[in-house]
Amino acid sequence: MKIKTRLSLYFTLISSGALLLVLVSIYIAVFSFFTADFYKRLTDRTNLASQLYLKADELAADSMIQVQQKYLEKLPDEIIRIYDDNNISAFDMKHNIYWSKDIINQVRKEGSIQYEDGKKKVVGHYYHDNQGNFVILASAVDKGSTRRMVKLGQLTGILFIIFGTGLFFAGRMFAQKALSPVDKIVTEIRSIRSSNLHLRVGQVKSKDEIYELIDNFNRLLEHLQNAFELQQTFVANASHELRTPLTSIMGEVDVALDKPRDAKEYERVLRSIAADGSHLQETITSLMELAQVDLHYTQAILSPVRVDELIWELDEYWAVKKGPGMLKVQFGDMPEDQELLTISAHKSMLYIALNNIIDNAFKYSAPQPVTLNFEAGAGTVKVSVADQGPGISEADKAKIFRPFYRVNKDRSISGSGIGLYITGKIIELFGGSIQVLSNGFKGSTFIIEFAARNR
Ligand code: ADP
């Protein structure tokens, strides 16, 4: 059963249940009121009869009936009897005893009684008087109330059916309206395949649960797209990048073996093979790194990482590698709250990303020192790496983050063009941003920003 139908059914069940409860309560209240009212009318009759009985000697035997008919409307099948201490009924001699002795005695015992006898309602009262004690019993059929209750029951039933149907359709309409964004999401999701993971589900305006669902789904898509791209990049580039230097080596060797050559020529060929070999080694290393990042990427569980501590680790590493003071680490104003220095990340992946940038800075500005600036506060953690190298042109600023892209003029410097691609992906995974500042002639600054965990 569709959620829409289920929701409208639940809504109808709950609201019509409440409606039924109200209608039944009204019915019961009206019924009790009518019953009590009828007993009161019977009691009024017994009271009047008692007054007349006291003056009985002054009245003719059937005067009571006449008075009653004059002042009180006759009730259906009405019967009134007055019994003296000997259980002899006054006024009506024809049906001397109407109620059994047991009932009459029960009235004497209890003072007053009321009960239902089939369709009839009966009221009995015991009167003490200095002129004698007597029991009055009155009964009648409550035809009027029964008729009204039947009418009320019919009206209640009709109202219930009309409102119940109305509630079902109203519930269905609201459920349809509330779930219409879900229909839209389902249609959009249907068109997403592994071949078009760049597609995203359109966001809704109101910031509700559906908004969060779409937001999380889109984030999942982005993650999948990145992981997929990394894998595709690896597969697509691995064979090409490995084959190129190998072909070059084979070519050089074939040419050298073609005929006897002098020692100088052999040395040149060996140097060329060594250069290709080292390029091959670098490519294998970066492909392995790419594979490792890919593995981490798909399994990355983000945990709190203190960025300042990571920077001290990098400082130690580069002090050993390049010599003390070559990486100048500068800390700006530090917040007291340690959470403001902490981001959600994967420590070793973040280490790889920052190390790639520092490595490039040293590589392209050798032998000059590199400056690393760290700032935290206002909810963001910012790391800038500045060098005094050749700079990066405006056109290359976006391209350097592509896989295996290398700026032409830097081909003399060893590299594979994969470092910044990996760095960009990692930073994206942790929800950060990276930008390059450079005038294209001298010096480049890479600025990486993350949101602190405790914003
Ligand atoms: P690699 O350094 O292995 O070539 P990267 O992906 O790390 O690959 O960098 C891509 C390209 O971006 C480099 O080839 C280089 O041309 C350029 N680049 C990266 N960092 C710098 C820098 N600090 N200064 C100048 N150019 C840079």
Automatic annotation (TrEMBL):
Membrane topology of the entry: Multi-pass membrane protein
Primary enzyme class: transferase
Record-linked SUPFAM superfamilies: ATPase domain of HSP90 chaperone/DNA topoisomerase II/histidine kinase (SSF55874), HAMP domain-like (SSF158472), Homodimeric domain of signal transducing histidine kinase (SSF47384)
Domain Histidine kinase: 237-454
InterPro entries, per database record: HAMP_dom, HATPase_C_sf, HATPase_dom, His_kinase_dom, HisK_dim/P_dom, HisK_dim/P_sf, HssS/ArlS-like, Sig_transdc_His_kin-like_C
HAMP domain segment(s): 176-229
Pfam families assigned: HAMP, HATPase_c, HisKA
Catalytic function, reaction form: ATP + protein L-histidine = ADP + protein N-phospho-L-histidine
Stretches that traverse the bilayer: 7-34, 152-170
GO CC list: membrane
Compartments reported by the entry: Membrane
Keyword hit for Transmembrane helix: yes
Single GO molecular function: phosphorelay sensor kinase activity
EC number, as in UniProt: 2.7.13.3
Keywords: Kinase, Membrane, Phosphoprotein, Transferase, Transmembrane, Transmembrane helix
PANTHER family with a match to the protein in the record: SENSOR HISTIDINE KINASE ARSS (PTHR45528:SF12), SENSOR HISTIDINE KINASE CPXA (PTHR45528)
Protein name: histidine kinase
Organism: Mucilaginibacter pallidiroseus
